[in-house]
Fold this sequence. Notes:
Helix content is 78%, strand content 0%.
Amino acid sequence: xxxxxxxxxxxxxxxxxxxxxxxxxxxxxxxxxxxxxxxxxxxxxxxxxxxxxxxxxxxxxxxxxxxxxxxxxxxxxxxxxxxxxxxxxxxxxxxxxxxxxxxxxxxxxxxxxxxxxxxxxxxxxxxxxxxxxxxxxxxxxxxxxxxxxxxxxxxxxxxxxxxxxxxxxxxxxxxx
Length: 176
């Protein structure tokens, strides 16, 4: 186990615990889900937005340093090809495109799963374009599933099962 792996595991655990177990961590989800509601709840949304961008930049710098250490070089185009990969992993890991949902551990699991899939594609001798195509297909499937889940949830909002049963029973009585 290399120091990069240890530092990554420690950062994942620390941030996952912070986001799930502390009030400030949960406030990040609230601000991400609905900024106006968070503001009405008394949360200083501007501070959380700035903190989110600062943490994101700091973790991107740490990731870039790890990436450069792995290749023993740094160039201007070092991470250009990884944007689709990162977005796919975040969305597959459960981060909602509308905000307010997600998790670091689930995103890490998605990254490991995608990496295993990409390694398999390379071992089969398929090109980089196949890798990008499959990543796009997986991302499209996840986005479609999320859209369907939101649609289904919106249909169910406000429905009370006992009231629906009573209304169906009343319709049945009227039909007789």
